[in-house]
Write a structure and sequence with these properties.
Layout lengths: L4 H14 L7 H9 L6 H23 L10 H6 L1 H12 L18 H18 L13
Helix pairs in contact: 1-3, 1-6
Length: about 140
């Protein structure tokens, strides 16, 4: 799950606009840094709404599963992959004395995404008079 649906929407919108979905090499990182992202409030708002609806559908489906479910938070996984992999392996009952992750994928957005999210939240409140529903809270987490 990615709890911050605004950042998820921004990431998806940027990927679709630039056609850069993952960074695995320095060349792609350079291209990504040069790629132009055009802020579009209406598009982001529609995507945030879709992401919340999709998440609610997934959560309803997971709640009916006859087996235990482990929620893995995307941002926690990116921040500390070894710790999250330990959680996953423990949940699955797999014993591994050591976990080493070697991910080559680099997050595309950083401060730019945070600034865009702040702008979107501000624009949303200005336009609708209500705060945006930014975070999704899973009952299974």
């Amino acid at each position: 799950i990615r709890r911050d649906k605004v950042l998820q929407a921004i990431s998806t919108e940027r990927a679709q606009q630039t056609n850069i979905y993952h960074i695995r090499t320095e060349a792609v990182a350079t291209n990504s840094a040069r790629a132009e992202y055009v802020y579009d409030y209406d598009s982001l708002r529609a995507r945030v709404d879709i992401l919340h609806r999709e998440e609610e559908e997934v959560q309803r489906a997971l709640a009916t599963m006859p087996h235990p479910v482990l929620m893995v938070d995307y941002d926690a996984l990116v921040a500390d992959p070894e710790r999250q992999m330990r959680r996953i392996l423990d949940f699955l009952g797999i014993v591994r004395p050591q976990i080493v992750t070697n991910t080559r994928v680099i997050k595309i957005l950083g401060d730019e995404a945070a600034a865009t999210a702040d702008r979107f939240c501000h624009d949303h409140e200005d336009r609708t008079g209500t705060p945006v529903r930014r975070y999704f809270t899973s009952p299974l987490a």
